[in-house]
Design a protein that fits this description.
By secondary structure, the protein is of the alpha+beta class. It contains 14 helices and eleven strands. The strands form three sheets. Strands 6-5-4-3-9-8-7 form a seven-stranded antiparallel sheet, covered by helices on one side. It has a two-stranded antiparallel sheet with strand order 1-2. Strand 4 and strand 5 form a beta hairpin. Helix 1 runs parallel beside helix 5, helix 6 packs across helix 9 and helix 6 runs parallel beside helix 10. The chain is elongated, with a radius of gyration of 56 Å. About 0% of the residues have low confidence.
Length: about 575
């Protein structure tokens, strides 16, 4: 709830400062009443019109400052916010109050809608300090996201130039950021539509928490038909629409820690299938290709994993890590600066001690000169005393030299410590350079991913073209099929006529066959009668012989004279006799 409150306060701060026309830090109560009523409306909070007057009843006259309005804002509005409101509508209300006052009249390369989205992104990436500014590191992050979305290269040189002009610890306000992006300096060679699409893509990711979106086929639960839908994945829900304009919403897939996604084999002519299984319902989805399928499965699994551990979306977690890294780096720099100050103070103290020792030595030398003069004057009288004083003076000088040597040793250790701190500072600089190189490597990987996405888009366009050609071929095939069907019907009619003729011929054939059978029976009857008659003749062949036409072959001679049969008939009869004989035996 604390993070939501901070995000709301940033937009409200812009609205409050816009109502402060004379920049005195105060706004009239009538304007605050209107602002409070609008805030309650867009945040779905019950509005109490009397609460503002009761809260400031001791100060009925004069405007109210930002600090004076904050207790009322926290107690009667922000503490009652439940999160069931439209963030875009809330930001648009605050934007309406402040953009006309702050935007310059010079024409921008981006539209008012894109400027509004940049303003909302600024509130998301800005520091939690007022007046609100966005630090150079977050500006670089935003510009890289925009250039990646536009498919352009990194404008590192332009950013470094602007970063140097801004200063190391300084940032940009919301309106300066809008002018920077709207000037077209980081989108040279790109048209307005490309820039608008890039701003919209970054806005969807950072503000609307859109983790992934795209077209896929969904199987219906009732009619079991496949329909193309535009899917939008968010941290706890997958919404699907009729098209990517998001106007006709068809349904939601609510995600929780119990959901899981698994790959399915190809079936029913559909490829690249996967299943999203929830507690009460399952959804079969078909991606356009294997790469898209794997990307969606990975994205949904990552989202469910984040829900299980209660982690925020990746871009919010990355923003928090960048903020913590900046705070840690700032603390290290402050600690290093404090240590340097301590070393400088210690060095100054050592210098003062050395100066004191030097003065003591000079004073001792002056005293020694005076004593020497006195000793010369009283040389003869105080010879013994001079010897004692000289020995004592030597001892004092030796002690002084030992102190000086000791101080010199301490100074050398101090200088060595300074060198160690300088080496530590160099190591910190190298660590920062390594981090910068790692970011450049990450940018290179992101470029490669963008190029792969472009190639995948080209392949998808080729597949769609091939699909269209297939549809045309199917239509031509259907026409040919209809023509063949017409020819088949004509041939069937001709076949029916031929079948009728065939049946007539079959009937005539049967009649002819019946006639043939009748004639055949008559012939068989006649043959039987002839055979019977021949048998009788054969039985009495010695008494009678048939009168047959004469043969030109030589006649056979029997016991009774010339034979009445030919050689062939004789052979036939011999075979008949042999057969009968074999049968009788």
């Amino acid at each position: 709830m604390g993070g939501l409150k901070e995000e709301l306060l940033k937009a409200i701060w812009h609205a409050f400062t816009a109502l402060d026309l004379d920049r005195s830090g105060k706004v009239s109560k009538s304007q605050l009443k209107v602002l409070s009523h609008n805030l309650c409306t867009v945040l779905n909070v019950p509005h109490d019109p009397v609460a503002l007057e009761e809260h400031f009843r001791d100060d009925d006259e004069g405007p109210v400052s930002n600090q004076g309005y904050m207790p009322y804002l926290n107690k009667f509005i922000l503490e009652k916010v439940q999160g069931n409101f439209d963030k875009v509508e809330f930001n648009r209300m605050c934007w309406t109050l402040c953009f006309k006052k702050n935007l310059t009249k010079s024409p921008l390369f981006i539209s008012d809608e894109d400027a509004f989205k940049v303003w909302v992104i600024f509130n998301f990436l800005s520091e939690d300090k007022y007046p609100l500014v966005i630090v150079p590191e977050e500006i670089e992050y935003l510009l890289k996201k925009l250039t990646e979305a536009m498919g352009a290269g990194s404008h590192q040189e332009q950013f470094e130039h602007n970063k140097n002009s801004l200063g190391a610890n300084q940032g940009l306000s919301a309106w300066e950021l809008i002018e920077l992006i709207g000037s077209g300096q980081f989108s040279k060679g790109m048209d307005r539509q490309t820039v608008s699409m890039a701003v919209n893509e970054v806005f969807n990711e950072l503000i609307l928490d859109v983790l992934k979106q795209g077209y896929m086929l969904k199987k219906g639960h009732r009619r079991k038909n496949w329909t193309e839908r535009w899917f939008v994945l968010k941290p706890n829900i997958i919404s699907y629409y009729a098209s990517e304009d998001l106007k006709d919403k068809k349904g939601d897939i609510v995600l929780d820690e119990n959901c899981f996604v698994e790959s399915l084999p190809d079936k029913d002519g559909k490829k690249c299938l996967f299943l999203i299984k929830c507690l009460d319902k399952s959804f079969e989805i078909s991606a356009s290709d294997k790469k898209k399928k794997q990307e969606w499965i990975q994205a949904i699994q990552t989202t469910v994993s984040l829900l299980r551990v209660g982690s925020p979306p990746p871009h919010k977690e990355a923003r928090q890590k960048r903020k913590e890294l900046r705070q840690k780096r700032q603390a290290e720099e402050e600690e290093l600066e404090r240590q340097m100050k301590e070393l400088q103070i210690a060095n100054e103290n050592k210098q003062e001690e050395l100066e004191t020792v030097r003065k003591q030595l000079e004073e001792a030398a002056a005293r020694a000169a005076v004593e020497e003069k006195k000793r010369l004057q009283t040389q003869m009288e105080l010879q013994d005393r001079f010897s004692l004083e000289l020995a004592r003076e030597k001892m004092v000088r030796q002690q002084m030299e030992e102190q000086v040597a000791q101080k010199s040793s301490e100074l050398k250790q101090y200088l060595q410590r300074v060198c160690e701190l300088e080496e530590m500072y160099k190591e910190l600089q190298e660590a920062l350079e390594d981090e910068k190189q790692a970011r450049q490597d990450e940018e290179t990987v992101r470029k490669l991913q963008a190029r792969l996405l472009e190639e995948e888009s080209a392949k998808r366009a080729d597949l769609e073209k091939w699909h269209l050609q297939q549809q045309q071929t199917i239509l031509m095939t259907e026409a040919e099929k209809q023509e063949l069907e017409t020819q088949r019907i004509i041939k069937e009619q001709a076949l029916q006529v031929a079948m009728q003729q065939l049946e007539q011929l079959e009937l005539e054939r049967k009649q002819a066959l019946d006639q043939y059978e009748g004639v055949k029976k008559k012939l068989e009857l006649a043959a039987n009668k002839t055979k019977s008659w021949k048998d009788k003749v054969a039985h009495h062949e010695g008494l009678i012989r048939l009168i047959e036409p004469g043969s030109k072959n030589p006649h056979l001679i029997t016991n009774w004279g010339p034979a009445a049969f030919t050689q062939a008939e004789l052979e036939q009869r011999e075979k008949s006799w042999k057969g009968k004989k074999a049968t009788s035996e």
